[in-house]
From TrEMBL:
Domain of life assignment: Bacteria
Residues of the signal peptide: none
InterPro entries, sorted: CobW-likC_sf, CobW-like_C, Zinc-reg_GTPase_activator
Taxonomic lineage of the native organism: Bacteria, Pseudomonadati, Pseudomonadota, Alphaproteobacteria, Hyphomicrobiales
Protein name: CobW C-terminal domain-containing protein
Annotated Pfam families: CobW_C (PF07683)
Residues covered by the CobW C-terminal domain: 44-110
Amino acid sequence: MRSTRCDVPLDQVLNRSAFDLDRILEIEPGFLDGDHDHEHDDHVTSFSLVTEQPLDARRFLPRVQMITRRFGTDILRMKDILSFKDDDDRFVIQAVHMLLEGDHQRPWKAVQGCASKERTLA
């Protein structure tokens, strides 16, 4: 299935049993056991920024571009949902390494408030 920005009818992606717990347990009976062999990388860090104040896009967007240029090879994932001054829409930025994309998404919902949230995993 091909899509652009995840624009697909939900009935084509939901209820397909793509992840069926019973099927997984048949293949791997110990899947739900707490004893899994895995390691954590102590070099992976994260930071986040949350503010209730609308941001100034002319100041914030160059900062994100600078961070991507300077630290892009270390960025595993970045997702920002931003509220800019004089803008009724959410602005969403996503980045993986040095690939950066941002665009207006949709108007803020009244129940959400307009807090800007930045999450980066590096």
